[in-house]
């Protein structure tokens, strides 16, 4: 970002701001999300919600900051100041310290492994048969991997619990096992549809205000971001509650939110006054906040906390593709039709498509009730 201060043409900006800053931003974002599964075991949804709300805070604060800097200084100085702000990521990264050995020696107890190990010990003491797996290896695995609570809460026989634990260990031997999981592929597709809808709202909302010959587009965008931030944190805390932490409940909530957002997006073509558009934007911001709060918890439900970091990297790759081609699509629709209605209708279709994909994801999950995760 700071190197853009020395840019004298658009080609240099493509290199400094586009390639260098874009690469650094991607490398800094993924650890920021995946580190939550290392430090938090009981409140992953709330922790990830607080992390992911940073994008909403940026959308709320930076438009005013950028406008102030551009009014007071030149574009080059604005790049230099924002680059200095971006350097604070280094300080944040320095705080991401590895867990101490004492914490590693006291992991959260997993009934699944404990019962399996105790039963295996009894069998070894009464028989000379060779165990199917080494007890020491299982203990080491228990120290470094988080076994799904779903497996640990299953009320079954000891043999069934052993089978769940062995399957979990075998599954973890393949680092990218989730790439063969149809539920995960459907999840990534749904997030890509949602990412396209998200950027369309903030790109086309100011154009919608100006098209209706109104003013105050910056205030509307800021209020939408504020509502989204509040909903992200509030609903992230809800998903950690006892009833809402279930995978089927979270996927159902995601489906309902996609349908509601699709209906609301399609109705935007009927809005032509600033007051009604403000209410519309606040409702859309609340639904966007609900959906963003579900992104990480649903992913953890699918792949497990241990594989969440790598799996989320592929999700962000899909989002990056959408952030690249999304503005081109919405801009082309705006240029071709001469109105923002076409972009909003197309975005509503994307939200309905995300709802269909989520329904298919939930259907696949029901068909595979014993699907083990890492």
Output mean pLDDT: 75
Outline type: globular
Number of helical stretches of at least 4 residues: 17
The radius of gyration is 24 Å
Query: What level of helicity do the residues show?
Result: over 70%
Number of strands: 0
Instruction: Assess the beta-strand content as a share of residues.
Output: under 5%
The parts where pLDDT drops under 50 for at least 5 residues are 102-114, 119-173, 370-374
Measured distance between first and last alpha carbons:
38 Å
Question: How are helices and strands ordered from N to C?
Answer: HHHHHHHHHHHHHHHHH
Main sheet specs: none
Structural category is mainly alpha
Describe this structure in words.
With 374 residues, the protein is mostly helical. Helices cover 76% and strands 0% of the residues. The protein is built from 17 helices and no strands. Helix 12 (182-211) packs antiparallel against helix 13 and helix 12 (182-211) runs parallel beside helix 16 (308-337). The radius of gyration is 24 Å and the shape is globular. The two termini are 38 Å apart. Mean pLDDT is 75; it is low at 102-114, 119-173 and 370-374.
Architecture blueprint of SSEs:
Elements: H1 10-34, H2 36-39, H3 44-52, H4 54-72, H5 75-86, H6 88-94, H7 101-104, H8 111-126, H9 135-144, H10 149-152, H11 158-172, H12 182-211, H13 217-238, H14 247-266, H15 274-303, H16 308-337, H17 341-367
Helix pairs in contact: 1-16, 3-13, 3-15, 4-13, 8-9, 8-11, 12-13, 12-15, 12-16, 12-17, 13-15, 14-15, 14-17, 16-17
């Amino acid at each position: 970002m700071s190197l853009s201060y020395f840019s004298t043409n658009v080609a240099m900006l493509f290199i400094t701001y586009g390639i260098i800053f874009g690469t650094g931003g991607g490398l800094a974002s993924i650890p920021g999300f995946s580190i939550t599964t290392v430090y938090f075991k009981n409140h992953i949804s709330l922790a990830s919600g607080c992390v992911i709300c940073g994008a909403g805070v940026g959308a709320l604060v930076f438009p005013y900051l950028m406008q102030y800097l551009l009014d007071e200084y030149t574009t080059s100085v604005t790049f230099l100041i924002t680059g200095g702000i971006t350097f604070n990521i280094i300080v944040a990264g320095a705080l991401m310290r590895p867990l101490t050995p004492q914490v590693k020696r006291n992991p959260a107890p997993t009934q699944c492994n404990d019962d399996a190990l105790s039963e295996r010990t009894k069998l070894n003491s009464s028989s000379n048969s060779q165990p199917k797996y080494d007890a020491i290896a299982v203990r080491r695995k228990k120290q470094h991997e988080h076994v799904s609570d779903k497996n640990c809460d299953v009320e079954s026989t000891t043999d069934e619990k052993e089978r769940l634990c062995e399957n979990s260990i075998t599954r973890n031997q393949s680092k990218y096992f989730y790439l063969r999981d149809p539920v995960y592929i459907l999840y990534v597709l749904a997030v890509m549809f949602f990412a396209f809808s998200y950027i369309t709202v903030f790109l086309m909302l100011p154009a919608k205000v100006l098209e209706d010959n109104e003013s105050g587009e910056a205030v509307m965008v800021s209020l939408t971001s504020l509502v989204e931030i509040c909903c992200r944190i509030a609903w992230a805390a809800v998903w950690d509650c006892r009833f809402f932490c279930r995978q089927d409940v979270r996927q159902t909530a995601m489906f309902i939110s996609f349908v509601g957002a699709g209906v609301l997006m399609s109705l935007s073509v009927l809005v032509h006054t600033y007051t009604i558009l403000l209410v519309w934007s606040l409702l859309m911001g609340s639904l966007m906040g609900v959906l963003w709060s579900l992104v990480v918890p649903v992913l953890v439900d699918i792949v497990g906390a241990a594989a969440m970091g790598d799996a989320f990297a592929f999700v962000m790759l899909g989002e990056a593709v959408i952030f690249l081609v999304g503005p081109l699509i919405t801009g082309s629709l705006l240029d071709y039709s001469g109105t923002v209605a076409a972009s909003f209708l197309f975005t509503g279709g994307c939200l309905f498509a995300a709802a269909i994909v989520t329904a298919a994801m939930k259907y696949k999950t029901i068909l595979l009730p014993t699907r083990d995760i890492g």
